Structure formats: C-alpha cells, structure tokens
Amino acid sequence: MCGLRNGDTLLRCFFITLGCAKNEVDTDRMRALLQIAGVGECESVEDADFVIINTCSFLEVATRESIEATLELAQNDANDVRSKPIIMCGCVPSRYGMELIDELPEVAAFVKADEEDEIVSVVSKVLDVNLISMQTVETNTLRTVEGVSAYVKISDGCDRYCSFCAIPYIRGRYHSRDALSICQEVHALVADGVREIVLIGQDTGVWGNDLPEGHDLAWLLRKVAQEVRPYGGWVRVLYLQPEGMTDRLVDAMRSIPEVLPYIDIPIQHCNERVLRSMNRKGSAKEYRELFDRLKSEIPGLVLRTTGLVGFPGETDEESEELLDFVQAVGFDYTSVFAYSQEDGTAAAKMDEQIDEQTKVERAQRLIDVTEQLGFDSTASHVGEIVDVLIDGMEATDTGYELIGHTWFQAPDSDGAVHIESGEACVGDKVRCKLTDSFCYELVGEMLGNA
Ligand code: SF4
After folding, report:
1. What tens digit of pLDDT does each residue of 228-262 get?
2. What angle do CA 277, 278, 279 make, to 5 degrees?
3. Domain span at residue 408?
4. C-beta 22 within 6 A of ligand 1
C-alpha cells in the first residue's frame, strides 16, 4: 500500500509551519518526501488524515506558540479534528527531546530537526500503513515551492554560541551542506520557474569551512550564479555575521551580476562590553569601519541588521549607544528583539537580568528610530527605474494591482512594489518607475518588460 487509506483513498496531510524561513524549507522537504510516497496535502485540517506541525523554539515565546498551536488542534472538537494524529517536528522536539513524551501525550510522534528525513517511516508507524520511503539524489533536492522566490538552505547549526541563543543546542554544531546538492536544488528550482534564490543558514558566511574541499561562500556564490544565469535569476544571501565579510566575499558580491548588493548582517549590539558578555566579537569602532568599507566597496549596498536590547547588565547608556549606532550607520532595515531569558543558555544564568518593562521600552525606542530609517530609505528610491519581480496580484478597491519586489526588498521581510496598471505574469521581471512610497511599500509605474 502506498499512501492509500482504506485501500483506495489517498492519505492527506495538513502542514503547520511556525518560525523562520529555515523551517519553511524543512517543511517543504518533508512535503516532497511524503509526496513521493504518495501522501497528498490538504488545505484544511478537517480534510486531513494527520497533521504535521513544524515548530519553532528560538525564543520562549515561540516555544509557547508551538505548544499552544498543538494543544489547540488536540482540543478542537469541531469536525473530529481532535482525533487526527499530530506529528510534532523541528525545534521544540530538538530542544526538549524525550521530556515531551510525558508533557504532551496528545502528540503521536516527535521528530527532531535532524531526523526529518525519516518522516515517511514516522508517518507509516503512526498511521499503521506501509509507505515506501525513497531517498535518492533527486529527492534530496526536491522542492514544492510555488512562488518566484525560494529559500535554499546551505548550512544548519551554529558554532558561535552567543550567550543568549539556544540555536546551537537545538540545531547542533555548524554543518555545511555540500555544494553539489545545493546547486542541484537551485537548478531544479529555476528550471521550475523560481527567479530568486535566497541562500540561508544560521551563519552563511562560514559556509565551506567544515568541508574537505576548501571552498568558501564566495566560491559557492559563483556556482549558484551560474545556475540562475540562463533564467535571468537573482541570488540573495541572508544571515552573514560581521566576521564572515571577507575580502573574497565582498569581491564576489560586487562582481557577480546575479548576486544582489543586499547584506543582512545581524550585529545584535555595538557596545564592546555588551558584545563580550554576549560572547560576540567586535566593537562600535570595528563595525563602523566594516560598514563604511562595505558601502564604499559595494555601490548601492542595502543593509539589514538585527538589534537586541535588554541583555543582562545592559545600561540605559549602552542601549542608547546602540540606538545612536544604527542611526549613524543608517541601516535600511532593522529587526529589533527584546532579550528573552532562554533555558540552557549562559545569559539566562547571568545576574542583572533586566525587568520586562525596561526591555519593552528600550525595544520600542529602537523600533521607533529604525522604522523611520527604513521609511526614509524606502522613500529614497522614489524616482528610480528598477526591475521588479512579479510575485502575484492583490485585489484593491478599484480592481487589482500587481505586487512584486525589487533587488533591495527581501521576500517576506521587507516591503513590496505595488503596480496599479499593466499586465504581467508571476515570475516576470518588469521595468518600473518608482513613483511614491508609504512606510516600507513603494508604488511603481510599469514601463515594460525588463
Ligand atoms: S550566530 Fe546567530 S544562531 Fe549562532 S549562536 Fe549567535 S545568534 Fe545564535
């Protein structure tokens, strides 16, 4: 029996994915493996034979959200939802392991992030069916992406052990994915209509360090660019740590036309004392020099960063220092986090934890400043003529508009371009004049095909 229920009906799974883009990729891979085994997907939980919930545990609030979503399913009396077996995957099982079996009897099986390739046999066991698991080179790179942008994971885990972060305990030591499988996946994606490849990992800049071939991210970018070039595609890299910005990488970003001049580089803080306490390198002076160098060497560079406030022992002055720093650098986009005391991390045991109210106030101050920076940066593009990759279409009061994004707008994180008139298909690249902006959004007037 292959993916069949009662001998004749296809088994159907309802997926819930929480957390970041890396989790989206992991869900996509499980979806692909199950599809090959003959398991279908359904859009509503009522139609499903079982549910896969791919969880996030990066922060305590994310863990809580993952568990609440699971319990909500298990306690849902409507249409027999509570009877559907739930398989919990990803970061929550990776972080809490066997503890969960007693804590969450509602869950039929737990699958850690590094065990997700076994999803077909887990489903077989849970549903008592005999699905055939096929893992070949093709299935290792199989994806089910529908949009024009696709995340591609180039590594997992992290060796940096920032004192506030649970990722190394959840995802393990840093391990690069081999170049061949990355390129095969990229090749399949662009051949299937994807026009933007977004390379992700917890720490993309050190890709290759643990592989015997001796290659680095700059080398990988050239390989990936070769795959997307025949299709006029773009390559974007996210999550580069400051120390990962080598001369070779800067040169690759500047000289490979497909690689977008967009750098996402989380600094978390700029104060040297706070950075050391976070077990991170750098200082305001070093970071300032780095960003000045990047801006001078990569024309038109757009910068995204992450700031973390309320770390144990952070003073008001140190928090203000971060605020002044992001203003001085002029980041185009900034994600702001208030420190969260995470079980098992070094920072959770530190004295001088900051009270919640102060953390919220500091985060809000930083958000206010960075939002204005972001709005100003977006507005600064008004008047430019740019290529816009069409993502889809949205209904408006007067009809519809095309929605797309440019090289300086990362999918899912930054704003979009709204085109009120003209015709184009999803995946087309059109030439637009940017005529107006609101918050992070831009209005474009279509001039023709790019
Ligand atoms: S580099 Fe990022 S993923 Fe790695 S430990 Fe630090 S915050 Fe966590």
Report:
1. 999 999 999 999 999 889 999 999 999 999 999 99
2. 85
3. 385-449
4. no
